[in-house]
């Protein structure tokens, strides 16, 4: 039995008996004369070359984009032996879908759903298969409108994963632009010294109060969250009393001080933040907000081949139009620590992926750079880097001003207030006195 969210679609498969195929050929001319059949013939392929994403990939050679590249010899393949799995395509601002054609590889779905969504979160079912046998499934007579279409596999037909040579979506697209998707993020690094609000010189209670007043969609940190050795007891006694007030809405990364814990590198950090800092089981992870893809990295272990491969795979799956990354050690800085070449290989990967923005801490000052490439050459398609290490630790002086550095502030505690839309970004550096100390330009995402 098949369940439908709209008028029941018609599915055909290429595993038809020869007799039935012959009959279809004989009556083909008559079918073309029917109104609904004529409409199907006029359907336009709207999915080819569109941004795609998936729940997993078997490896980097079987990315989700391969199912939409128009090449019948390339394919998407999911991780093996895991249910459920999905693949989705961004059809643009809005699309009306009338037909979906799936060409399965040997690793097919026994049960799956074809779904559509306006926002990539809430899905409406267009068609359901409960007894799939692979090969080609051609769903016609569909009626659905949205931006994203997803094939959601719930039961594998083999012991392997799910694999599709092609996913073809037919229908019409709208010229209506997508929503602006505006949201605000607060960011800071180098935060909780071992002091409390009882001391007038203690800064992190003030930056935390400022961060809460801004009331962003979420908070992110750029490492060295707790000084000096990031012990769990210190997290509980200091960070938790201030920035811990919005811990559940915080997306942190570790700095070098998190690695100094006598109980073991990152022990206190991991114990305090738990799954908040390890949502994908590692101290590096990614997530989406609006049309933005955020990548949170552990720059203490940029020599870890597993993290580098994960980053490449994650960026290959990304379908968002704007890309930001954040980690502790800045490639370029005019502060006491200066430039850190450990970050250059990651910059090269991000630059090749069209990244827009990189946020760092480590040096305890505020600084913004003009768009530049990994070699420090100013270029319009470069990455904008911001150092935001004034979350509460003792300030560092500006020492050697780097090329492309546009603004530097030392000695004034504060946070970054990032204002992002589906296509643009800008920011302000706000001091604990609620005064804007610097405003960045408005950039358009690459």
Task: Explain this structure.
- The protein has 446 residues and is α+β, with helices and mostly antiparallel strands.
- It folds into two domains: 10-173, Jelly Rolls (Sandwich); 183-444, 4-Layer Sandwich (Purple Acid Phosphatase, chain A, domain 2), CATH 3.60.21.10.
- Helices cover 15% and strands 32% of the residues.
- It contains seven helices and 24 strands.
- Strands 1, 2, 3, 4, 5, 6, 7, 8, 9 and 10 form a ten-stranded antiparallel beta sheet that branches.
- The longest helix has 15 residues, at 18-32.
- It is elongated, with a radius of gyration of 26 Å.
- The two termini are 46 Å apart.
- Mean pLDDT is 90; it is low at 1-7 and 16-41.
- Residues 33-172 form the F5/8 type C domain.
- This is Alkaline phosphatase.
- It comes from Streptomyces vietnamensis.
- Residues 49-71 are annotated as: Disordered.
- Keywords: Signal.
Topology:
Blueprint: E1 10-13, H1 18-32, H2 35-41, E2 44-45, E3 52-54, E4 76-77, E5 85-104, E6 109-117, E7 124-129, E8 136-140, E9 144-156, E10 163-173, E11 183-188, H3 204-214, E12 218-221, H4 232-237, E13 250-251, H5 267-273, E14 285-289, E15 292-296, H6 305-317, E16 322-326, H7 344-352, E17 357-360, E18 366-369, E19 384-388, E20 405-409, E21 414-420, E22 424-431, E23 436-439, E24 443-444
Parallel strand pairs: 11-12, 12-13, 15-16, 16-17, 17-19
Antiparallel strand pairs: 1-8, 2-10, 3-5, 4-10, 5-8, 5-9, 5-10, 6-7, 6-9, 11-21, 14-15, 18-19, 18-20, 21-22, 22-23, 22-24
């Amino acid at each position: 039995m098949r369940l439908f969210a709209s008028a029941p679609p018609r599915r055909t498969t290429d595993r038809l008996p020869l007799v039935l195929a012959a009959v279809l050929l004989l009556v083909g001319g008559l079918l073309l004369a029917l109104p609904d059949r004529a409409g199907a013939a006029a359907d336009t392929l709207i999915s080819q070359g569109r941004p795609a994403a998936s729940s997993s990939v078997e490896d980097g050679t079987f990315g989700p984009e391969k199912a939409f590249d128009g090449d019948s010899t390339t394919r998407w393949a999911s991780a093996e032996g895991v249910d459920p799995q999905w693949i989705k395509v961004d059809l643009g601002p809005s699309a009306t879908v009338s037909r979906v054609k799936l060409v399965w590889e040997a690793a097919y779905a026994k049960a799956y759903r074809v779904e559509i969504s306006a926002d990539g979160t809430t899905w409406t079912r267009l068609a359901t298969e409960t007894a799939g046998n692979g090969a080609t499934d051609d769903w016609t007579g569909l009626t659905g409108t949205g931006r994203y279409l997803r094939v959601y596999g719930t039961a594998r037909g083999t012991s392997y994963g799910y694999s599709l040579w092609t996913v073809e979506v037919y229908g019409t697209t709208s010229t209506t632009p997508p929503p602006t998707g505006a949201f605000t993020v607060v960011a800071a690094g180098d935060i909780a010294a071992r002091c409390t609000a009882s001391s007038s010189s203690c800064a992190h209670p003030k930056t935390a109060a400022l961060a809460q007043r801004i009331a962003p969609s979420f908070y992110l940190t750029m490492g060295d969250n707790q000084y000096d050795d990031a012990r769990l007891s210190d997290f509980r006694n200091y960070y938790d009393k201030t920035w811990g007030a919005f811990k559940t809405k915080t997306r942190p990364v570790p700095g070098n001080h998190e690695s100094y814990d006598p109980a073991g590198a990152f022990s206190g950090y991991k114990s305090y933040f738990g799954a908040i800092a390890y949502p994908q089981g590692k101290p590096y992870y990614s997530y989406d907000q609006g049309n933005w893809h955020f990548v949170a990295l552990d720059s203490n272990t940029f020599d870890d081949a597993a993290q580098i491969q994960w980053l490449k795979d994650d960026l290959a799956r990304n379908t968002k139009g704007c890309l930001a990354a954040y980690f502790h050690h800045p490639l370029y800085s005019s502060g006491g620590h200066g430039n850190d070449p450990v970050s250059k290989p990651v910059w090269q990967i991000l630059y090749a992926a069209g990244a827009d923005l990189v946020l760092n801490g480590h040096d305890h000052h505020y600084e913004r750079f003009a768009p530049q490439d990994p070699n420090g050459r100013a270029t319009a398609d470069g990455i904008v880097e911001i150092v935001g290490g004034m979350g509460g630790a003792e300030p560092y002086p500006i020492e050697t001003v780097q090329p492309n550095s546009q603004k530097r502030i030392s000695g004034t505690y504060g946070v970054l207030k990032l204002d992002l839309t589906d296509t643009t970004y800008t920011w302000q550096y706000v001091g604990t006195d609620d005064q804007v100390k610097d405003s960045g330009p408005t950039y358009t995402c690459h």
